[in-house]
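Let us practice reading a record.
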Amino acid sequence: MSALIFIVFAAALVLGMPIAMSMVLSTVIPRLLGTTMGSSVNQLITNSFSGADTTPIIAVPLFILAGVIMAEGGISRRLFNVFAYFVGGLTGGLPCAVILTCLFYGAISGSGPATTAAVGAMAIPFLVELGYDKTFSAGMVATAGGLGVIIPPSIPFVLYSLATGVSTSALFLGGVLPGFAIGLALMAYAVYYCGRRGEDRKKINAKLAELRGQGLWKLVKDSFPALMSPIIVLGGIYGGIVTPTEAACISVFYSLIVSLFVYKTITFSSILPFLKGAVKTYAPLCFVLAFAIAFGRVLTLLKAPAIVSDFVLGNFSSAGTVMFIIVVVFLLMGMVMDTGPAIVILAPILLPIVKTLGIHPVHFGVVMVCCLSIGLATPPFGLDLFVAGTLADTPPMTVAKKAMPFIIAFAIALFGITYVPWLSLALL
């Protein structure tokens, strides 16, 4: 019966049905066929509401709202100016400054598409103006935007915690070093590309002279409130002062205060549109997550985790081999499925298997999120590709071609993270 549910789910996706509807159909199809397994419509609705009615999940829309406010508040430009001041004079320095901006902006937004949109809207026109290839710039931002779901606070880590019971705070800590490792891998390729293709140093030096003419103190002072956001949020969590959900709420109010009274880039009349934008972003995700939780509960009742565990452990005894297979599966799934549903459905099934093999739950969660974050920039359905393509006025598949070397660099770092658990566990 478990196999039937997965077959129906896969067939619905192939036929182009939305993920939420695919899960609904595969959940109720056994009952429709006259069996006693699966969910009735009433059970489906009850499980969906009870699954979504949890305190930790409130952190997701709050982090989305904070990211929307920060994006409109011009935070990405201020972060970029600081990084460009220090590394802009090096070969590939400005592309590296963009990647660093994505890295730190991820600590504000917690979302890949939000990071791509906020940084790309500023960085792509800026790099093109200085002579960099437009599709290269878009591909770089699309891939680096994936750092937004690895650097804490991260929405996928919240969902993994919700699905498995693993500490959200521990997952946030686990994502720090892997995020920086991936950022370094992306910067390494950016430096190689710029060194091989060359740069218009005359334009770059003129822009840097203009930037450095403002003085380091002015730049740091201007960007200080933006840099303090992740420190306040994460410091509150790790200091035991607030829970991740409460930290998300603090993030919203801090974003409002900075944007309204410090940078003065938004007005009170802008708040309602921001709320509407956050709701529009979160509502589809909430709908999918609610049914994903119900779908996962049905799989648990059908003993799908035990079936999968017996199969995997009966055929593979090496933790390294199992992790390699899981990474490949996640990479493929990330191309066709959104991060949230994939985590909520698969994490409870696979976590018991990897724990049996001695793999730490935090390490597994970090690897899972890193794998799925690559999917944000991979065709055919990588959301970051569509965001970056829109910003660059370039077809997403054209952006994907230039993103491919960055994706390879990302994947190399991913396999390092997979087989060096220390990167995920050193800060715990």
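A brief commentary: The longest helix spans residues 271-301.
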